[in-house]
Design a protein that fits this description.
alpha/beta, eight-stranded parallel sheet, two-stranded antiparallel sheet, 10 helices, binds N-[3-({4-[(3-aminopropyl)amino]butyl}amino)propyl]acetamide, binds zinc ion
């Protein structure tokens, strides 16, 4: 399978995140993409550098004020105080219910809170560059589908599916899957399905398309009653307005069995089939792996082959975008298993 990879991902390399109130090393590391790249190369899958500028598509899935903030956030932070370029900014205050989010404060930390859903998405000097390269990969993949390619895999990081119209969160900054789906629509696909198989609900992607019938969002994930992102991903979220009926959440209990997971995958694929999608975007989180350090599903490496086989049977032009997955050394095998299952290798 043709794949996209950019060395720019190294530019996003925060040093730590918060976990139970303590500083811990980041789970979302540069090594993740490198393990996948290595395995792709070993197995003979060609790597290309993104060649399409996604900026015009990004403007259709994210607000201009959020993008302006993100692009200049590090510069603004570093300019505040000597030494900040060696320090990670974190939000400490958020505009929850009854507070105003229409007025952007001048204070940097207040702006960061306005544009963040959590304190778990650290920025570093090259976050914009890395995230933009991931969005460019998604747009580039769509161009290759237009040229007749059956499927393309984007080996990018940071991930994207928690990033909403105007916020970052869950290690995500720009929503690569949404960029792919929007670019497919712009390229002439009448109906696009996004299937999110990351352990965590793709709240950002759901929100971006919640009022639209032209992009179906389907997700299987850990039940948000107990699992991140907690505040979205329930089964009763089915879409609104023109989008009513075009959002399907299949929450599963943390710790559920592999057969139960595949039953949900089957229901997801049936819905995508009945939608008569023209193209598919897969938010490929690999944190469903049994050994994942922050997640509680039980997939084994061979289960990722079965996942790829089932997706291949949908018979659709497909863009895969890498999302989560924190058992870094296993990511290469698990990612390549999906794409080789898809190709029937
Ligand atoms: C893209 C993606 O997978 N983002 C996930 C972000 C999760 N951030 C919150 C992590 C909370 C981890 N709780 C783990 C409990 C393990 N003992
Ligand atoms: Zn995840």
């Amino acid at each position: 399978m043709l794949t996209f990879f950019s060395d720019s991902h190294h530019a996003h390399a925060p040093q730590y995140e918060f976990f139970r109130g303590e500083r811990v090393p980041c789970f979302e590391t540069p090594a993740r993409a490198e393990f996948v790249k290595t395995r792709l190369t070993e197995r003979g899958h060609a790597l290309r550098t993104p060649h399409v500028d996604s900026r015009a598509v990004l403007a259709k899935v994210h607000t201009s004020r959020y993008m302006a903030f993100l692009e200049h956030a590090w510069r603004d932070w570093a300019a505040l105080e000597a030494g900040n370029d060696q320090r990670q900014p974190f939000p400490s205050v958020w505009p929850v219910r009854t507070l105003r989010s229409d007025v952007e404060p001048a204070n940097f930390t207040a702006r960061l809170g306005l544009y963040s859903m959590d304190n778990g998405s650290p920025l570093s000097g090259g976050t914009w560059e890395a995230a933009k390269a991931g969005a460019d990969a998604a747009a580039s993949a769509v161009t290759l589908l237009g040229a007749g390619e059956r499927a393309v895999f984007c080996c990018s990081r940071p991930p994207g599916h928690h990033a909403g119209p105007d916020f970052m969160g869950g290690y995500c900054f720009l929503n690569n899957a949404a960029v792919a789906a929007q670019a497919l629509r712009d390229g002439g696909a009448a109906r696009v399905a996004v299937l999110d198989v990351d352990y965590h609900h793709g709240n950002g992607t759901q929100s971006i398309f919640y009022n639209r019938a032209d992009v179906l969002f389907v997700s299987l994930h850990g039940d948000p009653l107990t699992e991140y992102p907690f505040y979205l991903g329930h089964a009763d979220e089915t879409g609104e307005g023109e989008g009513a009926g075009f959002n399907l959440n299949l929450p599963l209990p943390a710790g559920c069995t592999v057969p139960r997971w595949f039953d949900a995958l089957e229901a997801a694929c049936q819905r995508i089939g009945s939608y008569r999608a023209d193209a598919l975007v897969v938010s490929l989180g690999l944190d469903t792996f049994a050994e994942d350090p922050i997640s509680k599903f039980a997939l084994q490496p061979q289960d990722f082959i079965r996942l790829g086989e089932r997706l291949g049977k949908l018979g659709l032009p497909t863009v895969f975008v890498l999302e989560g997955g924190y058992a870094a050394a296993a990511l290469g095998t698990n990612a390549v298993n999906v794409i080789e299952g898809f190709e029937g290798l």
